[in-house]
Specification:
Pathway: Lipid metabolism; butanoate metabolism. NAD(+) binds at residues 10-15, 33, 92, 97, 119, 143, 274. GO terms for molecular function: NAD+ binding; oxidoreductase activity, acting on the CH-OH group of donors, NAD or NADP as acceptor. With 283 residues, the chain is α/β, with parallel strands linked by helices. 48% of the residues lie in helices and 14% in strands. It has eleven helices and eight strands. It has helices at residues 13-24, 36-55, 61-70, 94-107, 123-128, 161-173, 189-205, 211-222, 228-235, 237-251, 260-267; strands spanning 5-9, 28-32, 71-74, 85-88, 113-116, 136-141, 150-155, 177-181. Strands 3-2-1-4-5-6-7-8 form an eight-stranded mixed beta sheet, with helices on both faces. Helix 10 crosses helix 11 (260-267). The longest helix has 20 residues, at 36-55. The chain is globular, with a radius of gyration of 19 Å. The termini are far apart. The protein binds acetoacetyl-coenzyme A and NADPH dihydro-nicotinamide-adenine-dinucleotide phosphate (NDP).
């Protein structure tokens, strides 16, 4: 199947990065969000990153201009009516995602693939909310999207081979590496990563070490590029908590219980880098 027109829903840190890599691969991309402000911020971030790429000599001014021309923004979901592929990257909530997919199912052309960038929720349940479950799939990008090479591809139990193949081909076109995984809570990436982050929060909660020292141990001792608490702030503490809740509920195993300190920070609105405060403070 030919994919030329793409819509990315949600212009947060993931959505804007996803829109950027599709445009860089030569596709027409509409970025959708309920908030014009989020769209403006998302577009500004893309323009800054492309500008830096030109400064560093990784891209010509002509290429930057061509990429920018492929990108547009809209607050109207009905603009998905001419899209071949929609990638949803809204908040990590089943209710919100199901509502978006049900609307898209009415709007998008019958051949269109509906993909979700969910980091943990069951793709099978999202697919079942539509009349085209065989064309629903998980396309899980990593943060920061323009830099990270992996896309985890998750089939719902209903996903057709044709849909899987189209998304695997598209991932390669984006110059990323696809890895196919089964539809289980947190897939592979967050089933392994998030309990480590949650355990790092417990070590702070129990007074074993400060956030700085926990991060120093994992950076200097294990060669992680970021310590787990810096990474948690980078991902978003709300997203980390949602994922832990999906693991806890999905497996019914107490080893996945979210740390009370993580809950407290999210309740305080300390969501990490995006809100200016998490385990660290940001300008
Ligand atoms: C939660 C989920 O569902 C799944 C997930 O995504 S989990 C999160 C997965 N991601 C990670 O684990 C990231 C871990 N951290 C890293 O790999 C690195 O710290 C990093 C790539 C983010 C930054 O690398 P660094 O070497 O420390 O910093 P820096 O030298 O400033 O950046 C390296 C490159 O990344 C780019 N970069 C850094 N942050 C960026 C961002 N937020 N967006 C886009 N590009 C970014 C920089 O522009 C730079 O590129 P150039 O050299 O080409 O200009
Ligand atoms: N953060 C990460 O590292 C990663 C996150 N993910 C997943 O990507 C998704 C998005 O995460 P992230 O980008 O971090 O989140 P953000 O909070 O940065 O962005 C989410 C965006 O979606 C918007 N939004 C919410 N509901 C709707 C809706 N119904 N229609 C259109 N837009 C909507 C939000 O608007 P508003 O702010 O106005 O509510 C916000 O702009 C989640 O499913 C997350 O699990 C996947 C990989 C990594």
């Amino acid at each position: 199947m030919t994919i030329n027109h793409v819509m990315v829903i949600g212009a947060g840190q993931m959505g804007a990065g996803i829109a950027q890599v599709f445009a860089q691969a030569g596709l027409n991309v509409k970025m959708n969000d309920m908030s014009q402000d989020a769209l403006d911020q998302g577009l500004l971030g893309i323009e800054k990153r492309l500008g830096r790429a030109v400064e560093k000599g990784r891209m010509t001014e002509g290429e930057r201009k061509a990429i920018t021309e492929l990108l547009s923004t809209t607050t109207d979901l009905k603009d998905a009516a001419d899209c071949d592929l929609v990638v949803e990257a809204v908040v990590e909530s089943m209710d919100v995602k199901v509502s978006v997919f049900q609307q898209l199912d009415e709007i998008a052309p019958s051949h269109a693939i509906l993909a979700t960038n969910t980091s943990s929720l069951p793709i099978t349940e999202i697919a079942a909310a539509t009349q085209r479950p065989e064309q629903v799939i998980g396309m899980h990008f990593m943060n920061p999207v323009p830099v990270m090479k992996l896309v985890e591809i998750i089939r719902a139990i209903q996903t057709s081979d044709e849909t899987y193949q189209a998304i695997e081909d598209m991932t390669k076109k984006l110059e990323k590496t696809p890895v196919e995984v089964e539809d289980f809570p947190g897939f592979v990436s967050n089933r392994i990563l998030m309990p480590m982050i949650n355990e790092a929060v417990y070590t702070v909660h129990e007074g074993v070490a400060s956030p700085e020292d926990v991060d120093a141990v994992m950076k200097l001792g294990m060669n992680h590029p970021m310590g787990p608490l810096t990474l948690a702030d980078f991902i978003g503490l709300d997203t980390c908590l949602y994922i832990m809740e999906v693991l806890h509920e999905g497996f019914g195993d107490s080893k996945y219980r979210p740390c009370p300190l993580l809950r407290k920070y999210v309740k305080a609105g300390w969501l990490g880098k995006k809100s200016g405060r998490g385990f660290y403070t940001y300008d």
